[in-house]
Amino acid sequence: xxxxxDSARKIADFLLQIKAVKLQPEKPxxxxxxxxxxxxxxxRLTLSYPKIRTYxxxxxxxxxxxLYGKPDIIVGIATGGIAQGALVAQDLGxxxxxxxxxxxxxxxxxxxxxxxxxxxxxxxxxxxxxTGGSSLxxxxxxxxxxxxxxxxxxxxxxxxPVAEDAFRTAKVNFTALCDFPILIxxxxxxxxxxxxxxxxxxEWMKNPEKWGAGxx
Length: 216
Fold this sequence. Notes:
Layout: H1 5-17, E1 21-23, E2 29-30, E3 36-37, E4 39-41, H2 50-68, E5 73-77, H3 80-92, E6 96-99, E7 112-113, E8 121-129, H4 133-143, E9 148-157, H5 161-170, E10 174-179, H6 180-189, H7 195-206, H8 208-211
Parallel strand pairs: 5-6, 5-8, 8-9, 9-10
Antiparallel strand pairs: 1-4, 2-3, 6-7
Helix pairs in contact: 1-6, 2-3, 6-7
């Protein structure tokens, strides 16, 4: 779910303006999972734009306070959530740590970098939620340190049913600053894409695996 519709629309405009999001219904991208996708999202680009980076940080802080209060620690999820999480932690004057995508293959074999303590309440920062698998893996790693995971906040969510089911099953709260439906809405309103292209994009969201069948 998104936190604030007006803010989500503004963020959608930002993402489209800097081409952090590319929409190609006729020439889909291929995810690592093999899923054909008409959208590619690289929110790391937002870090190169101070105005956008600042706005995102401010919105992260607002969501965290309104939904969870002030946690004991902010935890970024590798890789896109690390820089954003550090900015949020700095703003809040809180400790920061981050979760690797995989445990280190050498040394201590740690999955979490930074100091986390048993009993701490944590909010995790993510740049993008697709199927939810990597986000929930990170949440599990933090919970494994006996921390209280209050929730995950991301810049963007594809709003895929599989992700909603996964978070519900895991009983982990999550929210996004912007999501796929809002992005498509703004893309049409600003003539970034046509109504016909928007229809194809909405069909993809309902069933990504079926949508991509037979596409090159």
